[in-house]
Design a protein that fits this description.
The chain is of the alpha+beta class. The chain has a single domain, classed as 2,3-Dihydroxybiphenyl 1,2-Dioxygenase, domain 1, CATH 3.10.180.50. It is 33% helix and 20% strand. The strands form two sheets. An eight-stranded mixed beta sheet has the order 2-3-4-1-5-10-7-6, with helices on both faces. A two-stranded antiparallel sheet has the order 8-9. A hairpin with a 5-residue loop joins strand 6 and strand 7. Bound molecules: 2-oxoadipic acid and nickel (II) ion. This is 2-oxoadipate dioxygenase/decarboxylase. Its EC number is 1.13.11.93. Keywords: Dioxygenase, Iron, Oxidoreductase.
């Protein structure tokens, strides 16, 4: 199997579970087809996908990234979120038809002793890096790994307790490596829908609820990276002891990347990914994280 076909299998497996679990994905695709923005789901350009991780020994970014480095991704810029106690990197894909990847990590050692001990009561079960035990050339095994529990299923009481200090921690303790979001690339859509204002208007007209933390459009200071996202809907979660509760699942993001000044003279049909704003923006990301936080999710569920 070539590296790219392994990557396609892993990305396909992630997207399949994500679509099953996040009804907004099918809903948005259906609305885009109905209003003629695309002909079929495959016409959507996926700007990036994102994962969340726990920063504890044997896990976190250093563990998960090995899978994607093996599949040809390159680690790029580092971002720090002091208030939310998170670190993140983005990864550039091996070829422009594949999505970028954004991986964040909770700075567990910066949390209160109580919160740390709840997290460790689960993650201490992991005594060696689980990715080292994987055959990274076996795409089916990698797919399986990304959808298996890394640590025991949490109790609902621990989930609630974690959420008091870090809603990110609560999300990860239950959701683990479930895809946190995929991202519709807006700038290559037909005229009339290729700016975020118009695309957001289309989404809201179709009943989708957008994260409004810091405003619905999050813009980088240079103005070239603009992002919006839906609010995560609740999913049924099965906690330890057979308790079922609705908790925040995953969401969908939308990104508009502007053409950089030095390429603005190019005819529209010659503009490719490398001519547009790359990377991410900490100020935008800080607000997008809140798509799974209760201040946002309580607006829809
Ligand atoms: C990631 C939030 C940041 C972006 O594109 O800046 C982000 C998350 O919610 O885990 O997706
Ligand atoms: Ni994102």
């Amino acid at each position: 199997m070539t590296q790219n076909s392994a990557l396609e299998q892993v990305l396909g497996g992630l997207m399949r579970r994500y679509q099953e679990r996040v009804p907004d994905v099918q809903g948005i695709i259906a609305a885009m087809i109905k209003e003629g923005l695309i002909e079929k789901a495959e016409d959507i350009e996926n700007d990036h996908i994102a994962f969340r991780t726990m920063g504890v020994p044997h896990l976190g970014i250093q563990s998960l990234e090995k899978i994607f480095l093996h599949l040809g991704y390159r680690r790029m810029d580092h971002y720090v979120f002091r208030e939310k106690k998170l670190d993140a990197y983005w990864y550039a894909p091996p070829a422009p038809q594949y999505p970028r990847i954004f991986i964040s990590e909770l700075r567990v050692q910066d949390l209160s002793p109580v919160t740390q001990s709840i997290i460790r009561s689960y993650t201490d079960e992991v005594t060696s890096d689980p990715v080292d035990a994987l055959d990274l050339n076996d795409a089916a095994a990698v797919d399986q790994f990304l959808h298996s529990g890394l640590w025991p299923t949490p109790t609902y009481a621990d989930f609630l307790e974690l959420g008091k200090e870090s809603e990110y921690a609560a999300w990860v303790i239950y959701n683990r490596y479930y895809l946190n979001h995929f991202t519709v690339s807006v700038h290559n859509l037909p005229e009339g829908f290729n700016r975020l204002e118009a695309f957001n208007e289309f989404l809201e007209r179709n009943g989708f609820v957008l994260n409004d933390s810091g405003g619905k459009i999050k813009a980088s200071p240079d103005g070239y990276l603009r992002q919006s996202s839906t609010v995560a809907r609740k999913v049924e979660a099965q906690f330890a002891g057979g308790e079922n509760h609705l908790i925040a699942g995953s969401y969908v993001e939308f990104a508009e990347r502007g053409v950089l000044k030095e390429f603005q003279h190019l005819p529209a049909d010659q503009i490719r990914r490398e001519h547009r704003r790359e990377g991410f923006e900490a100020g935008n990301a800080d607000k997008i994280f809140e798509s799974t936080y209760s201040a946002q999710t309580s607006r829809v569920n």
